[in-house]
Each structure stands twice: as C-alpha cells, then as structure tokens.
Amino acid sequence: MPRTLITSALPYINGIKHLGNMVGSQLPADLYARYLRARGHEVMFICATDEHGTPAEIAAKKAGQPVAEYCAAMWQVQKDLADGFRLSFDHFGRSSSPQNRRLTQHFAGRLDTAGLVEERASRQVYSNADGRFLPDRYVEGTCPNCGYERARGDQCENCTKQLDPTDLIAPRSAISGSTDLEVRETKHLFLLQSRLRDELDAWIDAQRGWPVLTTSIAKKWLHDGDGLQDRGITRDLDWGVPVQKGDAPWPGMEGKVFYVWFDAPIEYIAATNEWADANGGDWERWWRTDRGADDVRYVQFMGKDNVPFHTLSFPATILGSGEPWKTVDYLKSFNYLNYDGGQFSTSQGRGVFMDQALEVLPSDYWRWWLLSHVPESSDTEFTWEAFQTDVNKDLADVLGNFVSRVTKFCRSKFGEAVPAGGEWGLGEEALAKTLAARLAAYERHMDAIEIRKSAAELRAIWVAGNEYLQEAAPWATFKTDPDKAAMQIRLGLNLVRLYAVLSAPFVPDAAATMLRSMRVEGADWPTDVAEALGALPAGHGFEVPEVMFAKITDERRADWAARFAGARG
RNA sequence: GGCGGUGUAGCUCAGUUGGUUAGAGCAGCGGAAUCAUAAUCCGCGUGUCCGGGGUUCAAGUCCCUGCACCGCCA
User: Within 7 A of a protein CB, which nucleotides of strand B?
Assistant: First the structure.
C-alpha cells in the first residue's frame, strides 16, 4: 500500500486564522489527504499549533492569562475550528509538547556535535520595566533617517530604511511603552547554515517537478548577495524549548530558549510522535528512513511566505543532524488570497475569519469555493459577489439540484426504491465513456495536486449528469416507455452515489448526505465507471434528502459584505 | 533601494519544452425543455494577450526596455 506523509504549515497560536491562512495550507492539504485515503493510500496527515515566541507572550498578556494557559485555550479553539471545516488531521499537535521539546533539544545536540553550532555574543535591548530582552521589532522610536516617530527597531516602515534598534532616537518598548531601556550583552547560538549551502543546493537540485515558485525562492536565498546566512537559533525568553544539548545542559545558555522558527518545523515530527503516544502507533516508520520510512512519500503544503524555512532552514536542521530523517519529497506552495481589493489582515481584522465563516455558512460552501479558486499560480481575489454566484451555481444549481431532481422524480413516479426494468442504450454507454475519461483526468490532476483543475473536472462530472438527464428526458420517456424511464432514473440514482464518492474530498458533508440518502455505507473509489453505475440494484431503497445547498440570497450577501468590510467586531 | 511576482474576454482565472482560426467558468444575449432549489440543457466571444523595441520561418510564450499593481527584505 502506498504511504504518504502530509504536513500542513503550522498555524500560529495567537488568534483565529482567516480564510487566507487556511486556503494556503490546511485546506488543500486536507483535500489531498482525503483523496489519497479514498484511493487506498496509508496516509499520515499532520498539523499543529505553533506556540512559541514573543507574539504568543504578548497575546497572552493582552488576554490576561499565563502564556501556557492561553496557548492551551487557543489550541482548543483552533482544534474546534479545524473540526468545523472537516480538516481530517490524523493528529493536531502542539509545538509546546514534551515530544517537541525532546526532539528540538535532540536536534540541537546533534548539530552541535556536527560542529554546526557556534556561540556568538551580541548586544540587545533590554527593558527593565518589562523585565526582558526586546526583539528588534518590539523596540519603537523615532527614525534617525526620516524622523518618523513610530519606526520599529528592525526597519522604518515610513522610509523603509533598515535599522538597528540602537539607531532609534528616544527608543521605547513596544510592549509596555517604557523608555527604561538599556543595551546588554547576551550570548546566542547560531546555526552555521552557510556551511551547509552546497549540500542544500545539491538537495534542491535533486528535486524534480517542484513548482517554480518553490525552487526560485530557495535558490534566491541560497545565492543572492552573501548567500545563505548563519542564523540565531536561541532567544532570551521564558516561553519556549529550553536550550539543551539533547538531555544534557548547555553551559552558558541557562535561561534561554530556542527560537520559534527552530522548533516549529520539528513539530511535524514531534506531532507524529504525539500521535503515536496517544494511539499506540509507530511514528518512526514515517520519519526515519532506517526504520521503515524509505517508502514514504512526504508532501508539504504552505503559503509562499513559508517556503524559505521549509526549503532551507528545516532541511538544514535535518541534514545537519547527520541522521537518516525523512526529507520532503514534494513541496506545494501557494500564493495569497486577497479580500475585496486588499489583503486579508489579522492585525486589522480585515476579511473573514474561520469562526465567522462557519457562523454564516456550512463548511462545504467555503471548502468548495476556496479550493476551486485556490491561489495556485497567482494571487486570487475573494469577493462576495463572486462567492455568491459561484457557490449558487456550482453547489446549489448543478450538484444539489441534480440530486433533487433525480430523487424527487423517482419518488413521484416509481416510489422510494431504485426502479427495475429497461436496459442501457447508446446514450448510457456514451455517458459512461464520458465519465470514465473525466474521472481519469480528475485523478490525474489530483495526483499532481493541481487543485483548480481538479475542481473544474469534478464540476464537469456533475454537469455530465445534468446533460444526460436533459437528453434522456425520463419525464417524457415515462409517458411512452416506463421501463426505459426506470432504467434512466436508475442510472440517475447511481450517479448520485458515484458523485458522493468523487466529491467527498471537496465537500465531505454533502457527500455524506448523498450516501446516506442512497442508504450506502463506505462506498469505494470506482475502478470501472460502468460497473459503478450499476452499484445500486433495482429494489434498493433511498430517501429524498433535504435541500443540500440553500442558495445565498442577495440580502444575505449584502449583509455579510457590510459586516466583514471593516475591522473585526 | 534591492529582489521576486503579476499584468490575457465585463469578472475570476487556464494557457506544458515558442507552432495551425488564444481557452474555461461566471455574467450577458438567443433558443429548447418543464423532472427539479425558476433549478437544467443547447447556441453565441475579432479580446491593441500592459506599452515599445528585438531574436525567430513562427512569440501571450524567449531577450531588452518602459509603465502599473502586489509582495518580501530574515
């Protein structure tokens, strides 16, 4: 059985993610995971919350909670939303887990042993009032270049000049506003990525068929300017993985933690470990090529902003360890989803957030629209008008109405059981042939993770059913040849079953409704279309389902457009 | 400022290694049908492929350049 490991980029813990975050990682990853499971693959689908770092500490402070408590609560919120969107993770972990702590410390120890870690002294701003070192971007002050009063310590966003926190005039803490700051000397560990450049370069070159977006970003970072830079992997914070060399203490690094970007990707591995601990499975057969993972295909999903970390930093950690860890085989990256002419923005509360989306509509509406418009090759625009017309057309009119017209016609003419009589003619053979060709194309696109094309093909499969019905016209046939009408509608009911199976990766709830109404459990992916269209035999009972997709009215659309136009309320 | 991306029908987007009359869905117009959530099906697109140069027998597709928009700059 083919085995596929799938990871989605980790959502950060400090709040509820918006649709733009989800569409570039978790949602397409889920689509692929569901599809492969349906095709009989053994799948391990992993996601987790990314919990460490200063933004989490600040969010917790704002919420008036200890950071560990805040993260635990937010993890539950994100877990519930993931469930709401039917994201079928095998495990949704936490980067603050003991498993991740152990593995992060392990990797750091291995990297040190390999001579890839170096201690360097640096001068950083310390806030007495906050009792902590301040990351560069959390120091604010007046820009020495343009006089802008709210310049950040890493850069002035007014004149875009790159800054050092010590350049700022009248610096203050962005956390507390305190001006009681001083510069202190502190020591940090650096990962000597520059020494791994050739190895990483060769590794990237060895990858076949990766999207241009992915490799071009990686190559740029490897070769531009001074090339790949060494990277600080520790911070002076309380919240994080304590710096240790494996199980042993790290002299001189007491009280420091690893940088969030060092431990976050390791959580992919650790989350699988969490899964094993919770379910009694073996996680190493997914991750260690010396322990059974050599036949695993590993696919990652992420937004384009995450690509450098997954093509360079994380591989540097893994390759540098000198141990036989599984590296990514295919990296699917996405562009951005824009919202009504601008960006989705977490900080400004602009756009639709996961909780709000589920408040107004069932998850299938969102899954279908977002996946069929996923920003694969360029940024994509979300507008309420497009969302309304697309969803009404595709889900309500094409798919939902198909189920409705078939089941209701049958109920009124033959009763609520698959009718007997009649035999296939040319029209039915032609339909089977068309569907077989479309199914092959659908599978080809899904295998290649070409999501928009897959969605278009699935839609064409739905349309083929309506075309057939229009041509066969059982309502007319019924008057002259009831047996033939019975055969036609028997085929229609079987199409409903087939559509449920094929549509499940995109719209799992609707698929479940369709199967339930056809009184079918656990239908297999079709290998032969003609055969699949005879799966429901004459006499098999069914029910007419409730309207599967209510249409979005102009009033509701206008209401939502207004509600989500400004800041999150 | 540097780097990267994008610019194709009213809208959202496809257009493999350059190759016949540039495509899809939606919207729009016309028609058929009436089983169905007034839902379906059929037919209809001469669009300076952002502008300007260039390479080539041949460019939306490669090169140079200009413009516009977007993003990133650890």
Answer: 1, 3-7, 11-15, 24-27, 32-37, 39-42, 70-74
